[in-house]
Structures are given as structure tokens and as C-alpha cells.
Amino acid sequence: MISVGPLALALERLFAVLGIVVFMATANWIGRRHGPDSDKAAWRALLVGLVAARLGFVAQNWPAFAVEP
Q1: pLDDT above 90: percentage of residues in the chain
Q2: Can you tell me the distance from the alpha carbon of 51 to that of 57, in angstroms, rounded to the nearest whole number?
Q3: What is the pLDDT of residues 36-56, one digit of tens each?
Q4: Which residues have CB under 8 Å from 10's CB, separation 6+?
Q5: What is the C-alpha separation between 59 and 23, in angstroms, rounded?
Q6: Whose CA is closest to 24, among 9, 41, 11?
Q7: Which pTM does this prediction carry?
Q8: What distance, in Å, lies between the first and last C-alpha atoms of the chain?
Q9: Left, alpha or beta for 4 (phi > 0: left; psi -120 to 50: alpha)?
Q10: Residue 63 CA, distance from chain mean position
Q11: Of 20, 19, 38, which is closest to residue 28 (Cα–Cα)?
């Protein structure tokens, strides 16, 4: 856990955010070299990944969500 003033962030979440930032920066760099379609594909991949992660979380914890959605 990293604490900066009132902000506390778990390391795994910090690394996830850093991974997303690096992914998007790399996609932006590739997009400038190969055209804007690469950049659009990266945003779509990020959106699909976030939605899939949320659906996976709900599926793993279904008993808790079934009681109180």
C-alpha cells in the first residue's frame, strides 16, 4: 500500500494503472507511425478489457451480487 497524504493506493492497482498508461502511450506511438487506426484499436481493446474484467469479477462473486445487485 502506498500512501500519499489522504490518498492510499494498493500496489496491484498502481501497477494496473501504470500498465494501462504504458499500453496507451505505446499505442499512441504506434498510431503516429502506422496511422490512426492503431490508436482507435487500442482504445477499443482497453474498453473491452475493462468490461471483460468487470464481468469476470461479477461472475466470480455471483452469490454476493445475486443477493443484492
Answers
A1: 45
A2: 10
A3: 777 788 889 999 999 999 999
A4: 1, 2
A5: 26
A6: 41
A7: 0.71
A8: 29
A9: beta
A10: 25
A11: 38
The C-alpha atoms of residue 45 and residue 39 are separated, in whole angstroms, by 10
Residue carrying C-alpha cell 505505446: 26
Q: Given the C-alpha cell 499500453, which residue does it identify? A: 23
According to DSSP, residue 69 is labeled: -
Which is higher by pLDDT, 42 or 2? Answer: 42
Q: In three state form, how does the secondary structure of 3-68 look? A: EECCEEECHHHHHHHHHHHHHHHHHHHHHHHHCHHHHHHHHHHHHHHHHHHHHHHHHHCHHHHHHC
